[in-house]
Each structure stands twice: as C-alpha cells, then as structure tokens.
C-alpha cells in the first residue's frame, strides 16, 4: 500500500472559543455581535440578568419593576445557539494557560478560551471608607435599588408611627451623596414621590414636608455636562424643594445620620435615616487580577485597566477589556463606551478567524461620543450632544426615546411605555411594595458570611 502524497490539512479540535465575562452592556453586546461568527461563546456572569443600570433609580422609587430593566440573559440569548450562559463568580483568570475559573456555590468550572473579553464593570467606591456602606447603600445592582426602595418607603412609615418630633424629622430627611446623573435623578424622584404619589396617604405626617438633600464635595451639579446645564438642573431641583449642598464632603456615616465637612474646614451633622451613596466608582478587582499577569499593563487609581489602543492587555492580543473596566482617555464610564468597545473587540475576533487580523497593524479603538443626559423630574431633563445643550421638555423626550431604544426586549419596552404613561401623567406608581428582606437582607447576608469565614478560620487553626 502506498502512502498518499497529499498533505492532510490540520483540522482544529474545536471551534474558536470566546469567553465573555459580564452580562452588562459590554458583555451582552459582545455575545450578540458574534451571533453569526463561527465560534463557541461562553458568557459568565455573577448575575442571571442583563441590567439596564440607567433606570435603577426608577426601581428604587417605585416606578418600574426589576424585571422591566433586567431581562434574564439566558432568555435573551435563547436563540443564539453558539452562546452558552453560565452563572458564576470569576475566581481566577489564567492568561498563560488561557483559562477562566468561575465559582457557583461550591462548584468550580474551568473554561478554556482562545479569545477573552472582560466586561466586569465597576462597583460603588466609598473612597476607602467601606464602612459607610452599612448605612448608605450604593446604586449599582437590583439588590441596591430594592434595598433603597425599602429604606425610602420604610422611612415614611416610621415617621408616621413615631411621636418623637426630632425622630420624625430624622426619618423624613433623605440625603443623596453625589450630584452626578444618578444623584440628580434619585433626589428628583424622591421629591416627586413624596409630593405626588404619597400625598394624602398618611395621617400624622405630610410626605411633602420631607427634606431631600443632594450633596457633593464638588462645586457644581452634573460637572461633566458643563456649568450651564448643571445650573439648570440645580435650579429645577431647588424649585421642587430639593436642597442642593455643594462643596460639602461627607466624612462620616452612621445609623443616626452623617457628618459633613465644609470647604472652610468646619464640620456639621445632618440627622437622617435614609442615606444613599452615588459618589464614586471602583473598577472590578478582575482588572488588577488581569494586569498583574501581564508584562507592564497597569491599572489606574480607580482600578481600571490601562489598555493598549486596541483594548487589549500587553502581550495578549486576544484578551480584551471593555466597558467601565477599561481606562481609555476620553471615554467616559457610560453605556456607549461599553457597547462600542465590545463591537470593536468582536470585529477583531471575527477577522482573526479568516486570518484578516494582524495585531501589529490594528486600527486603534475610536470612541464616538453620542452625548449624555439626565432627568431631573417628569417632563424635565438636561442633555448634551456634541456642542448642543438642551434642558426641559424636549431634552426629557429625547431621554425617554433613547432609553426605550436601548432597553432589551420588546415586551420590556412595551410595559415600560405603559408604566411611564401611567406614572408621568398621573400620580400612581405600580411598584410600591416593600419587604423586610429588601431592607435587612444585605446586612444579614454580610453577617452570615463573616460568621462563616470566622468559623472556617477557627477550624483551620484547630487543625494545624
Ligand atoms: C445608577 C447608574 C446610572 C447610570 N446611568 C447611565 C446613563 O444614564 N447613561 C449611560 O450611558 N450610562 C449610565 N450608567 C453607566 C453604565 O450603566 C455603565 O457605563 C455600563 O453599565 C458599563 O457596562 P459594562 O458592561 O462595562 O459593566 P456593567 O454593565 O456594570 O456589567 C458588569 C457585569 O459584570 C458582571 N461581573 C462583575 N464582576 C464579576 C465577577 N467577578 N464574576 C462574574 N461576573 C462579574 C456583573 O454581574 C455584570 O453583569 C449608569 C450607571 C449606574 C450605576
């Protein structure tokens, strides 16, 4: 028998494997952009949903339900057969062996990759004062928003019950720390909730007499939107009764209230039951985990990865970091940055499949700024698109349309439009239910976790 002189073409043992970490704007866009690519994708996220963070404040203030802004990722991707969705927390990324380890309860999964897209986003930063979180939750997750709803509505309930006037005043004082878009939107909505929805529903208190304070260490509201729009937003908030306190830095937070340091160094106390923190962000620790394994990629002060111009880390042309976790000059931590970064990365991965991608000659990522906006109240928003600045009803209309376009799922869009119609034209809000779990679960779980950690440490030391 003669051997064939025709050379066998090497057939790869598997399709190109893409692992995507995170199911936010960056992660979901990445997976959907690879819908027609000849790849196997594994999306791993610690949440089962794709969360539309810009509308979290509406969940916190009883307008929308959590399901309307957070569809289940595996249902969104049900028909995309090249994608597998795994629930899990990433415990390790091994760039040398090209694997990602994810943990769910006590189960570990090790998933190999040829290309990796890390879109793990950011969390709340308390600027080194993590103990503030006990009394001033942030606004990053569904849990945060539901906890906040419980705290806001719970404060009105407690104020109705107490007969102590000072305590009543404390219960009816709401402080939002951080005058960025989230802080502005939340302060405006708490004021509107009190003024419109809760009016006439209590007998001992008048909800509209509550104090809503929006506070920031900076000297302006909405600094990235410029002084003119910042002033407009401030004026509108003040006309609704919100107290805007600027140049005021929070130095302590406790159960009773918070301590504030003025620019001249003097300190004062605000007694308040309900505090919300929307003042800063810290990138996912996965950024540092990645950077430490590279030859020279750094992270910035917020823990974001200082990526190469093609959004990769040094020495790994198919390891991309996108969204809030990437540090790229001129790209803000906004949904558009994450979406555009994910599209850019997946384009390169798709080109690499046919040998058209040469990492050495890649065109750098270019961000297209589509503008930014924030609502102040119903029918009122501020928006900045390029040099165009808008405030008032037309800005609000633009805000409404844009948010509908980016909400995932037709059912969600439909129900959101209906809900907005009812809420903005009337007084009612459909999501006013609160439970003890919303208010206490986070702290109870934290206590449980630290008890478990202590028990495990004691067991270890007994054994050794
Ligand atoms: C309250 C609020 C309001 C906002 N408003 C606006 C707005 O009006 N306009 C705008 O453009 N932008 C807004 N943003 C910013 C915008 O939401 C973010 O820029 C965007 O979500 C970033 O997308 P991302 O994919 O990088 O991260 P994210 O959307 O945060 O997604 C991160 C994903 O990673 C997962 N993850 C994190 N760590 C791990 C881990 N260790 N293991 C597994 N999974 C992990 C998370 O579960 C999540 O699915 C707002 C943000 C917030 C918090």
From TrEMBL:
It is a single-pass membrane protein. The keyword Membrane applies. It is found in: Cell inner membrane. Residues 17-341 form the FAD/NAD(P)-binding domain. Its cofactor is FAD. It catalyses: a menaquinone + NADH + H(+) = a menaquinol + NAD(+); a quinone + NADH + H(+) = a quinol + NAD(+). One of its GO terms (cellular component) is plasma membrane. Its main location: membrane. Its EC number is 1.6.5.9. GO terms for molecular function: NADH dehydrogenase (quinone) (non-electrogenic) activity. InterPro entries: FAD/NAD-bd_sf, FAD/NAD-binding_dom, NDH-2. Pfam families: Pyr_redox_2. The chain crosses the membrane at residues 390-409. Keywords: Cell inner membrane, Cell membrane, FAD, Flavoprotein, Membrane, NAD, Oxidoreductase, Transmembrane, Transmembrane helix. Belongs to the NADH dehydrogenase family. This is NADH:ubiquinone reductase (non-electrogenic). It comes from Williamsia sterculiae.
């Amino acid at each position: 028998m003669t051997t064939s002189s025709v050379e066998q073409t090497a057939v790869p043992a598997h399709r190109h494997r893409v692992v995507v970490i995170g199911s936010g704007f960056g992660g979901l866009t990445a997976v959907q952009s690879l819908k027609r690519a000849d790849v196997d994708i594994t999306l791993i996220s610690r949440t089962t949903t794709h969360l539309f963070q810009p509308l979290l404040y509406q969940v916190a203030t009883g307008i929308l339900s959590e399901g309307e802004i957070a569809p289940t990722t595996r249902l969104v991707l049900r028909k995309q057969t090249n994608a597998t969705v795994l629930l899990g927390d990433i415990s390790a990324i091994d760039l040398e062996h090209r694997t990602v380890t994810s943990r769910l309860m006590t189960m570990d999964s090790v998933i190999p990759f040829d290309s990796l897209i890390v879109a793990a986003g950011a969390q709340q930063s308390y600027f080194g004062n993590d103990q503030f979180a006990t009394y001033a939750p942030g606004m990053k997750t569904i849990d945060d928003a539901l906890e906040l709803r419980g705290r806001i509505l719970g404060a009105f309930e407690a104020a109705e019950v107490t007969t102590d006037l000072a305590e009543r005043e404390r219960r009816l004082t709401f402080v939002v720390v951080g005058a960025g878009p989230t802080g502005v939107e939340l302060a405006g909505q708490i004021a509107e909730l009190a003024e419109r929805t809760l009016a006439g529903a209590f007998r001992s208190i008048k909800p509209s007499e509550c104090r809503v304070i929006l506070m920031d260490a900076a000297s302006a509201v909405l600094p990235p939107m410029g002084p003119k729009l910042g002033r407009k937003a401030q004026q509108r908030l003040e006309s609704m009764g919100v107290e805007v306190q600027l140049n005021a830095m929070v130095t302590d937070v406790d159960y009773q209230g918070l301590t504030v340091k003025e620019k001249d160094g003097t300190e004062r106390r605000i007694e308040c039951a309900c505090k919300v923190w929307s003042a800063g962000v810290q990138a996912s620790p996965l950024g540092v985990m990645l950077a430490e394994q590279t030859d020279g990629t750094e992270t910035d002060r917020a823990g974001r990865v200082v990526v190469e111009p093609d959004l990769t880390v040094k020495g790994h042309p198919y390891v991309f970091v996108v969204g809030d976790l990437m540090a790229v000059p001129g790209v803000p931590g906004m949904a558009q940055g994450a979406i555009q970064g994910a599209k850019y990365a997946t384009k390169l991965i798709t080109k690499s499949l046919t040998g058209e991608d040469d990492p050495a000659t890649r065109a750098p990522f270019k961000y297209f700024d589509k503008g930014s906006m924030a609502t102040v109240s119903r029918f009122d928003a501020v928006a900045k698109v390029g040099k165009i600045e808008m405030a008032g009803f037309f800005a609000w209309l633009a805000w409404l349309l844009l948010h509908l376009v980016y909400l995932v799922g037709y059912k969600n869009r439909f129900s959101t439009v209906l809900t907005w119609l009812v809420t903005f034209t009337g007084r009612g809000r459909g999501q006013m239910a609160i439970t003890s779990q919303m208010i206490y679960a986070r702290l109870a779980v934290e206590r449980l976790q630290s008890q478990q950690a202590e028990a495990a440490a004691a067991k270890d030391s007994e054994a050794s």
